[in-house]
Amino acid sequence: MNYDWIKSRAVSHADKVAIIDPLKKTEWTYKELNIRAENLANYLVEQGIEKGDRIGVFAPNDVGVLDHLFAAIKIGAIFVPMNWRLKPIEIQKVVEDSGMEYIAYATNHLDRLSKIPKEYIKYNLDEPEYQKIVDPSHHRPFESVDVKPDDIAMLIYTSGTTGRPKGVIHTHQSYTNNIFNEILSWNIYDEFVTIASAPMFHVVGFVDIVLPMLMAGGQTVLERYFNPETINDWIYKYKPNILVMIPTMYYGIIADPDFSPELIESVEKFVSGGSAPLPAVQEAFLKMGKVLVNAYGLTEVPLVTYNNNELAMENPGSIGRPVLNLKHKIVDEDLNEVPQGEMGELLVKGLNVTAGYWNLPEENENVFHDGYFRTGDMAIENERGELQIVNRLKELIITGGENVLPSEVEAILNKHPLVNDGVVVGYDNPKFGESVSAAIVLNKQAQGIENYEEVLDEYMTKNLAGYKTPKLYLVLDEIPQNSVGKPDQLELKRMMNEKAAKIEEELI
């Protein structure tokens, strides 16, 4: 079966500009994108790349990332977008786990490949030598191989909550079906324009926006790295009508000192993914007559739910309804379905769901049940069929036999005027197993207040049961983030346990 869809777009939208790279001052039409990929495919085959081989790309948002995906599709190879935020030892684990021996890189990130065998590192996407390989002024046609729907198209690595990198398998069938769902859910067509700011090693930045935009024949402006100082200028200049970003990026847009509502006037849909939108940011957008649509997906299932502006405005906490052709159910700890309105783990089943994890057969047995993928997220479904994510199952804090949802505590904590940002995690307690703690960033006007713990204790105990209130606070300048821009739960727990141990030592 032929899944070489960029070749089809090169015919239907041949001379339309598909990709703009303002920093490199380049732009590429759909015809040129296909030629670049065919030239690269010929080169890779000459280097010994065959069907099923893994090709890694270690670079920021760049047309070279797309070159390698499209070339891999033509060859039948497996594309691996690598997370350049990882540390060298983490990158080494990804390379060893995937078995990749062919890596393209960008100038700024070569030092992170220090633990990788030099013979695996091939060429720099930012150098003229690479441009000669893909130069569309000279076309070397390539006959694309036929692939099966369940052949692997890409591996996207995630550390999840365990800290161990896992290669999430996306077949040609699963990732293209996700693209179809994106196009249908957001009504994307060939007049659409977007700015790709989220990193393309992550499903939010790649599978959830760049690829759907290209398959629909739209136009994508590449931002190599998200820059809060220039993003509003770019939005005003290129006039995108859809943006897909993580919450902190939306905060960066409105926090810019020169921000004004007319800068984002062209944008019809703001999709927020990766984590729940910050309530203060949602409110700021609503005051401007705009709404952040809270979408939900995972590396394993890039788009699970969709929403529209009107429904999102009515119920800001909702993640919407499941996408077309996706079955779902909410189950208890025994995997039995719960009544509507009750909380349980969300399970999903459909053609856009991962085929499993690379080389982890035992994990695959545990994560699938009766054909459904276990998301590990606790959810509630209301009478209108709208879903709301309550918490990660693995992030539940069990203290003295009582379950505490960090999201519930965070919702109260982040409303206090002293707190600019707060993340709730459990820490080890020999008496209760775990106890509740909170890492907080204080507002500037509140910094220097010595009795902040007393103030917060009084506030939290008025609004929550005693076992749910934080027993330990840790003030930080900023919340540490993991490689995909989410609060680093593992690091926060380590920091909390370290502080708790110090306090214990002082009492002895």
TrEMBL record:
Gene3D superfamilies in alphabetical order: 3.30.300.30, N-terminal domain of ligase-like
Name listed for the protein in its UniProt record: Acyl--CoA ligase
One of the protein's GO biological processes: fatty acid metabolic process
GO-annotated molecular function: medium-chain fatty acid-CoA ligase activity
Annotated coiled-coil segments of the chain: none
Sequence ranges assigned to domain AMP-binding enzyme C-terminal in this UniProt record: 408-486
Family under the similarity heading: Belongs to the ATP-dependent AMP-binding enzyme family.
Keywords: Ligase
InterPro entries reported in the protein's UniProt record: AMP-bd_C (IPR025110), AMP-bd_C_sf (IPR045851), AMP-binding_CS (IPR020845), AMP-dep_synth/lig_dom (IPR000873), ANL_N_sf (IPR042099)
Stored Pfam families: AMP-binding, AMP-binding_C
Organism (species): Candidatus Atopostipes pullistercoris
Start and end residues of each AMP-dependent synthetase/ligase domain: 9-358
Superkingdom in the source lineage: Bacteria
